[in-house]
């Protein structure tokens, strides 16, 4: 009888352990098929003002390589910049501001004639239809290819652009190679749900 009770207690103990083990195994949850909404495409045109000079720059060098002459050049190889660039409707400095581009970029080419940056930026909209939304870019940006447009990749977004993908065609509207100041036209093609 004693062994029968012990066997019953042991069997209940094992049953509790199995149930507990099964409930703990759901840590990762369940995966359900999603019926995606219809994908949308949004095309945006705006201007980014990257100002390195003056009393109130929108981008500042936060590091540079000592071996590459980085301190002697506005955009020397190996220089790392933090940016908080205004986004505007038009190219003029008094054009209506619709957002900001915040992030970082590094000068990634030794030859200034092939000047290229690698950038990460969150392009956030603070006015208009897309207020509170942003697109994120992370890409190589071959700045010296001024003759035509260059392209950077959209890797994500927030708000109305959550899970975005796509590309931005960039055209230099104006650049001062002495100061590094630039106004860039951004034509974004954003795929999102």
UniProtKB/TrEMBL annotation:
It is found in: Secreted, Extracellular space, Apoplast. GO terms for biological process: phenylpropanoid biosynthetic process. Residues 1-23 form the signal peptide. InterPro entries: Allene_oxi_cyc_Dirigent (IPR044859), Dirigent (IPR004265). The keyword Signal applies. One of its GO terms (cellular component) is apoplast. Keywords: Apoplast, Secreted, Signal. Belongs to the plant dirigent protein family. Dirigent proteins impart stereoselectivity on the phenoxy radical-coupling reaction, yielding optically active lignans from two molecules of coniferyl alcohol in the biosynthesis of lignans, flavonolignans, and alkaloids and thus plays a central role in plant secondary metabolism. Homodimer. This is Dirigent protein. It comes from Brassica campestris.
């Amino acid at each position: 009888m004693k062994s029968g009770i012990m066997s019953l207690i042991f069997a209940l103990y094992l049953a509790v352990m199995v149930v507990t083990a099964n409930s703990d195994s759901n840590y990762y949850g369940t995966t359900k098929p999603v019926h995606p909404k219809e994908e949308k495409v949004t095309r945006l045109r705006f201007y980014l003002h990257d100002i390195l000079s003056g009393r109130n720059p929108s981008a500042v060098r936060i590091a540079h390589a000592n071996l590459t002459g980085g301190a002697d050049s506005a955009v020397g190889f190996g220089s790392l910049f933090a940016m908080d660039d205004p986004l505007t409707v038009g190219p003029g400095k008094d054009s209506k501001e619709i957002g900001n581009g915040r992030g970082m970029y590094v000068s990634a080419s030794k030859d200034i004639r092939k000047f290229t940056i690698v950038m990460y930026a969150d392009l956030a909209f603070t006015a208009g239809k897309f207020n509170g939304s942003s697109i994120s870019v992370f890409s190589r940006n071959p700045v010296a290819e001024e003759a035509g447009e260059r392209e950077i990749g959209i890797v994500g977004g927030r708000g109305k652009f959550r899970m975005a993908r796509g590309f931005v065609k960039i055209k230099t509207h104006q650049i001062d190679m002495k100061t590094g100041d630039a106004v860039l036209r951004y034509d974004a093609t954003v795929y999102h749900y």
